[in-house]
Amino acid sequence: MRSRRADAFSQGLSSSMSLGAGLDSHYFQGLLKGRGLLFSDQQLMADDRTASLVRAYASDDGSTFRFDFSRAMVKMSNLGVLTDSQGEVRTFCSLPVHNS
Prior knowledge:
This protein is mostly helical and 100 residues long. It has a domain at 25-67. The protein has 5 helices and no strands. The radius of gyration is 17 Å and the shape is extended.
């Protein structure tokens, strides 16, 4: 397990990919070519749901990503912050904790 994590980390930063001026279509085109900036970025291509977004973002001038990103930021800003016992710590983010 340790060596697998170390391998993933050593692959983390790719010198062949840069952000340039920001997250524009070049960034997403790099993901399509297997040249993600971080290992976690490249993992977006591992699932059909996120890979389809990468393909869409790679095919325009970046306006689709900027629109989706701004909508997501507004949505997140409207979430209430849970503190102390109001919230929960999840082992798997996609699965809620069932307290019995």
